[in-house]
Protein 1
Amino acid sequence: MAANTNIQWYPGHMTKARRMMEESVKLIDIVVELVDARIPASSKNPDIDELAKGKARLILLNKADLADAERTAAWMRYYESRGWYAAALNARQTKDVRSVAGLIQESCREITERNARRGIKNRPIRAMIVGIPNVGKSTFINSFAGRAAAKTGNTPGVTKGKQWIRLNKNVELLDTPGILWPKFEDQKVGMRLAWIGSIRDEVLDAGDLAFELIQFLKEEYPSALRERYGLEGEEAPLEMMEKIGRMRGCLKAGAQIDYDKTASVILDDFRKGALGRITAEVPGDE
């Protein structure tokens, strides 16, 4: 089974979203970008670095509870070496999310001090949250803003369909409608995005995705295969899939392996963390 992951994906509405972001970035002090901690490079939109030039940066490695802690720490060091702030979190955990407000203020300290020297006092920091589909942006915004967050209507940008949310007296959040998607040339990026569900399962063949995932786990996380499926790692990836299919009852008429169902089981196990804490990329892979 050979993977066919030849994808190019940049729909028209993404171009519109990019234009909106170019307008929005002029209004803000800091760009807060969410990436998936399991694939920090593949889930990071390469357009953002250009759009956010001259702005403070904070990278949030979301879903860190599903990722390899050592590799997450390596990614944080990597981002910090670029002069950015970085934090690992689970956007569903209120305590994780609440700590971000302090990081935003810390990363914008120079801006606040410069404003104070100019006599501009009590102006809240303006932050824009960005992130590709399925990295948890909506969950983060909902957790971060909370039910008591007040929308502010006297800030530039509101009339353009953007929404300002006052988090506290020190931070305002710009929630922009629309989404941005990375245009990727490296097909491994598309495959990894499909592993976490950022590309719809109908776009790529699930059997190919699961095959590649098993191959990766065999090389990088053999203990995950052993503990979840009882596989020792000596089998070829296709043989592993067949064993998993039989073990899970993914069979068709004549006791034939149903590869689609087997693939769904494997991908679902990965996405929900049943295979353990796994990160598919390390700094330098990107």
Protein 2
Amino acid sequence: MVRRPAYLIAAFSLGLLTACGAASLPSPLHAAPEPASAPPPAGTPVGTVVSLGVDEPEGVAVDASSRYAVVASRDPGAVEIVDTTTLRVLKTIPIGAARHLELATGGEQVIVPSETDDLVSVLAIPSGTVVSAVTVGRQPHDATDLDGTLVVADELGGAVTATRGEENLGTLGGLYQPGGVAQADGLAAVVDVRGRLLDVYAVDPLRLVGRVAVGAGPTHAVGLGDGTVAVADTTGDAMLIVRVGAHPAVLASFPVPDGPYGLAVDLTRHRLWVASSGDDTLRMFTLGAAGSTPKLGPTYLTVQQPNSLAVVPSTGDVIVAGATPQGQLQEITP
């Protein structure tokens, strides 16, 4: 989430109440949860660690072939195409600063929500060619692809936007501050970080179909492939399993210490990966039946500030981006 002074938060809140019809939302507003400020690792991080030569890499996706990882960097605002077998940077594409990356339908393209220019682009992997680009609302934070329709969280616009190709299909307000976006059963689940809510949207047309309260300070979510999503309650040191749909509901909650934030799922091996910035730790959970509480497995020491991660589909390895000026990338073999 983006940090801002208190006077800006107050002004922004007033604007949302006026412009987005927020009277229907619960009150009072909450402070936006943030990732913990990570200490240096307490030992040597496991696996392979390299420096990318960029500042604050945050946002990772691995293409369907498992050959290439795409990593977003804040400074310079760009994405790096990385060979997953060597962690060598093959290409850098200047495209603006993004915090989250997600594969588009088909797995050989990546969605890049650029917070610095209110633009959502789709890039081909590994060429980096821009397939499409469309202007959305203020500061797009995350996006997901519902069979060709992108649902975008406009973090500072208090809204979600739907796009298809280079067409903006429309925007819906009524959120305090949308953050992470995930998908399940053809629906988009959007974490409203300041409202402590999970909003569920359908597309064609874009519409809100359900809403449920989630935790003390949720930030991000990931789809689990069974009609549920896992939500990181970063402030509450917990993970929630939520059923999406017209009547979303929290099915399970389990503790994860030190600010769970970075998420990835391995549907092939039934694993949920959760990184906690507060202690530079990556935890593996084994997924069971839909809505059941995942079981804690091994834990791994990561690079500093592990805000983003992704799974290599062919191997099950996990790639972690350390969002520090050192710009580290780490690959862990479970």
Protein 3
Amino acid sequence: MRLVFSGSWFDKDGLWEARIRRLHKFESLEDLEHVDFGFLLISYGFSSQTLGIKVKASEYPRLVFLELDEPSPFVKHEDSLNLRLLSSSFDEKNYTEAVKKVKEFIAEGTIYQLNLTCKFDFEMSGKPIDLFLRYYKSQPVPYAFFLDLEDFYLVCGSMELFLEKRGKKVVSKPIKGTAQSREELLKSQKDRAENLMITDMVRNDLSRVALRCSVKVEELFSVEEFRTLFQMHSTVSAQTEENVKNILMATFPPASVVGAPKRKAVELIDLLEPHPRDYYCGCAGFVFGGDFTLCVLIRTAIGSGNKLSYYAGAGIVWDSLPEKEWREVLLKTKAFCETLMA
């Protein structure tokens, strides 16, 4: 077992590694109340517990907690690697048809927004750690990590902060809006409306655990540049005296990867998507005492042996253009597919 991660999790440079002392597979967040320093992994399937809704799931454990030793710098040069696309859960025709169905639900007033994802299955020649190193090199992001639990592994290139708690302050930075240029994103009324909708959801989620009148939108429509794309995020904060269990019960799954209203969006996602999301769209990160930093598991691949799956999605609203949403899904896979390049 091993955990390698970007130093930016702890405001450091480079890549780091922490030895795993013990692995716990939990059934409930109640079990987190007595942990100290470690790494937490939560499957999207845990939505069934927080929302009381059945969702597609596989054999992966829903809650994993790793007890860790102190991290140390990690140095390794990646070896040769190749990926071959085998299949996807949607093709362009099926995805655009699903987008049209989402728009029908929006027209009926059932939902206002929904995140529709696609699963891409690959065959890999090479080692998973080398895939992570190539992926991180192609697009450095603040919440990157490689986790190998022997039965399966995750390669994460997330740039989205789900929740960070320091003392009484908790912060969330939902991402909504993706484009190939800053100007395109800033001019997009669709992306701004979608971002505002999700930001309001995060405000509502945090208000369930916040001290009175403490929820604030600190930043709205901020655009950040990454190597292969631009992303729009907002920042919501609150003061709270609740622990990690109660905060997650109030906020999981992350609003940005489901839709509005949350419960109905999750129900429709399970209806429309032919694949289980597994850890994709769940969360992961470090817990230390009462504080924690958790990212949204986007830009994430899940694998076993030489087979792995990568996921990408797009937020659908009333004025979404089905073909454009499919192009956004493909854009989000660009950094991952660049791992094929020498």
